[in-house]
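Data deposition worksheet. Section B asks for the primary sequence of the deposited chain exactly as it was used as input, without tags or linkers unless they were present during the calculation. Section C holds the resulting structure in token form. Section D is free text for depositor observations; keep each observation to a single sentence. Incomplete worksheets are returned to the depositor.
Section A, Depositor: J.P.
Section B:
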Amino acid sequence: MKSVHFLVPGDPDTRTGGYLYDRRIMAGLTALGWRVELHRLDASFPTPTPDALQAAVAILAALPARALTVVDGLALGAMPAAVAPQRERLRLVGLVHHPLALETGLDEALRRQLYRSECEALRAVRQIIVTSPHTVRALADYRIAPERCLVVSPGTDPAPLATGSTDETPTLLCAASLTPRKGHAVLLRALARLRQLPWRLRCAGSATLDPVTATRLHALTGELALADRVAWLGELNAGALADHYLEADLFVLPSFYEGYGMVLAEALARGLPIVSTTAGAIPDTVPAGAGLLVPPGADAVLAAALSRVLTEPEYRQQLAAGARAARGALPDWPSACARFAAALAAMPAR
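Section C:
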């Protein structure tokens, strides 16, 4: 039986795109007959404590020689000292969702530290798997040649088409953890410019990953007098989130960066028109005819885009038609897992 070890920091059941990707790939490999062993690293990554780094060193050292080992990028980029000594002994694979230094809200010192650290760590792995063609291009800044990277885009489960709201008030859905990178504050300021229009916003996503940001967003909602039009739903299970997708008229994601944007693909699978940004891989994920994309961080421009979609029903229907056309071309999870498995199987034993 083919076997592979996965090193993943924190709780693998965390409801973010990166963790969902890891879970689905591991489950898919198991279904394909692989023996998958999960090794949990400390949740302090990507800024690990000394104890967390020492534990990672011990986990890698305990693996058998030539073991096929996938290290999630959330940890990999912060642990070059752990992976470098194992580069000849283990068959190391880096799984990069997006470069750590591109996270929003980092101070310049930490950004530089993460960039240097990830450059060094990526040199220690034999194969790099990324989730979008954009990440291949982004890693060129890390002196990683494109031929070292293999794109395995996330799959998307089939889903029913959204039916929309049941009254005259359009429902906007944003599904994203409450972190700076997702741009919720920009969205709130944009919607504050559109008080004269009918709309309601439903925000689904964890408030515990970054409690400071979550608190600020709740406060900003009150300061902008939007509390009666914005609902903070918290982290939802798959069934509850599916219900909100079904009842939405428009999906909005004002991110400052996405390495793929799995929730955007989920919106396409529901035939939802999208308003998002040009950041990162989003233009690769959202076809031009299915969404209206604006520069990240520009609340006035975002407000104008939302206004157009909200006030021009024909245009909204045009985008919805584009989303419905795109849903059939979305990659599925069995194909993604098969491609991931093929990449692992192709790595030589020595």
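Section D:
The chain has two domains: 3-155+331-345, 171-327.
Residues 277 and 295 are 5 Å apart (CA to CA).
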